[in-house]
Amino acid sequence: MRALNFDNRFVRELPGDTDGINMSRQVYDALWSSVQPTAVAKPRLLAHSPEVAEMLGWTAADIADPDFASVFGGNQLLAGMQPYAACYGGHQFGGWAGQLGDGRAISLGETVNSAGERWELQLKGAGPTPYSRRADGRAVLRSSVREFLCSEAMYHLGIPTTRALSLVATGDSVMRDMLYDGNPALEPGAIVCRVAPSFIRFGNFELPASRGDKALLEQLVDFTIARDYPELQGDTQAKRSAWFMEICRRTGVMIAHWMRVGFVHGVMNTDNMSILGLTIDYGPYGWLEDYDPMWTPNTTDEAGKRYCYGQQPYIGHWNLAHLRDALKPVIADAQVLQAGLQAYADTYSETFGVMLAAKFGIRELSDNDAPWINSAFELLHKSEVDMTLFFRNLADVDVQQPELTPLLPAFYRDDLLQQYRAEWEQWLGQYCARLQTDNLPPEERRARMNAANPRFVLRNYLAQQAIDLATAGDNSRIVELLDTLRHPYDEQPRYAHFAEKRPEWARHKAGCSMLSCSS
Ligand code: AMP
Ligand code: MG
Fold first, then answer.
1. What is the Cα–Cα distance from 119 to 227, expressed in whole angstroms?
2. 437 CB neighbour count, 10 Å cutoff
3. The ligand 1 atom nearest the CA atom of 137
């Protein structure tokens, strides 16, 4: 395997806990702990992302080298790697949870590629760390397949996200109570290597702030600005202010994208919010099938629905408010902190507004559009229509002769289609009349819509089918799905079956319609 160039700034420039004792504990005065991955029985590469490999400077031959599975299964380190687990806290489900930290993620180092880009490599499921509390530091195959595929799917959809280099089966079993119903069972273990310029989360700042450790907080803030936001200018205070504004802005853009494609993160705790505005920590996430703002894929969230689809923009604000509180001791200008939250709200509405216009194929939204857009979403909801198929197929409606035909494959229930057919037809007439006032050439309108409305998303049941096959020893579906999701806006007729709406058998099946945090 070709060597990589490592420049591990996080561990070099920030205080760490280096006593190397791998025992669960509270860690003070440090932002990370050194820890070694725990070796696994039989690492085997199940899938990799060719784009991420190339970005790091690796060819197919490097990936095929047996050392590759060994390194990314945690059995071997490359020269220059300095593994560590980060120390952070977080608000979970609305309450302060204290110290959390990388309980099963181990960062291997920061590699700088030939283009000068910095990419941190991080194994998820590589064994216990000082932050594992009573858990095992491992990850199961099902959650690893989901994280691997979804990170890459999101990237190809044009959504800010951490990436995934590899998916390695460990050959070890892991005990999990998948449905939290008192039936623990052994499951195959796996490790994903995640890749991002930075894995720093809101919670990294919240923990020293909660402990009143202003010096440590300040160090982390200035480090993050220097390493992850080098474009910011001015004196220390000016940079910190501009930095907070930029985090707010990026978070707004990210969440607008989630809403555009119907992605529900499922666990928007502040320890799962990236300081770069990247989608991070793919756990019990899900994709809207029939449009339902109250839908949450996370069974732990079923009662409160704090993290359901429709709440995500609000939760983004809530999380930023907690980051703001953590940063108060080090950002002198209180107005800037408030302005950041406003910038979040403004960025979100502007960005989502532009996206909505593109989704419906109109040039620009105006206030007059609110009524018919709201009726569309109401109808989508009450008549159980697949969000992805509806928007994609909407481009096929003939503006001159509006008919429901292209939209029929998006309906889940015949009875609801019949019940709301007249309302839909009326809506369609109104919509097409609106399109005519825009007078966009049909091909331009279709291209605009198709660039905002993917044909392919990682439907919940598709991920589950890939998992079931992989559990039985066949990883071909993972590879095939990854290939499909690399071009989500293209028609790809050979993969048409991956664009179909959820089959009935998947409506209430575990893994397809509901997911627990157990992973
Ligand atoms: P999550 O909800 O997956 O973001 O995880 C919340 C916290 O629990 C983080 O600090 C994780 O590192 C930790 N955690 C989750 N699963 C495990 C595990 N199997 N072993 C150790 N720590 C874990
Ligand atoms: Mg997490």
1. 12
2. 9
3. 20
Q: Which residues are marked as active site?
A: 271
* Residue ranges making up the domain that contains 500: 460-506
**Domain-located, residue 299:** yes
**pLDDT over 90 (residue 514):** no
Q: Is the CB of 453 under 6 A from ligand 1?
A: no
Structure tokens at 119: 């990419």
Last residue of a domain, one of 359, 374, 398: 359
Burial of 186: CB neighbours in 10 Å, binned 0-12, 13-18, 19+: exposed
Domain shared by 95 and 145, yes or no: yes
* Its pTM surpasses 0.85: yes
Same structural domain, 499 and 388: no
Q: Is the Cβ atom of 267 under 6 angstroms away from ligand 1?
A: yes
Residue 200's nearest CA partner among 298, 115, 122 is 122
Say which ligand is closest to the CA of 103: 1
Which residue type, as a one-letter code, is found at position 321?
A
At position 472, the amino acid (one-letter code) is A
Q: Which residues are found with C-beta within 5 Å of the ion, ligand 2?
A: 272, 281
Assigned domain for 4 exists: no
* 372 shares a domain with 465: no
Whether residue 24 is found in the same domain as residue 160 = yes
On whether the CB atoms of residues 452 and 355 are closer than 8 A, the answer is: yes
pLDDT tens readout for residues 231-251? 999 999 999 999 999 999 999
- Pull the structure tokens for residue 410: 């998006």
* Ligand 1 site, residue 100, Cβ cutoff 6 A: yes
Residues 352 and 387 in one domain: no
Pick the residue whose CA is nearest to atom 11 on ligand 1: 103
The one-character DSSP state at 298 is B
Query: Which pairs with CB-CB distance under 8 Å and at least 24 residues apart come from 499-502?
Result: 499/388, 499/389, 499/392, 499/455, 499/456, 500/409, 501/289, 501/386, 501/389, 501/409, 501/410, 501/412, 502/289, 502/386, 502/412, 502/459, 502/460, 502/461
Question: Ligand 1: which residue has its CA nearest to atom 7?
Answer: 100
Structural domains of the chain, count: 4
Decide which of 392, 410, 439 is a domain's last residue. Answer: 439
Is the CB of 137 inside a 6 Å radius of any atom of ligand 1?
A: yes
pLDDT band for position 103 (cuts 50, 70, 90): very high
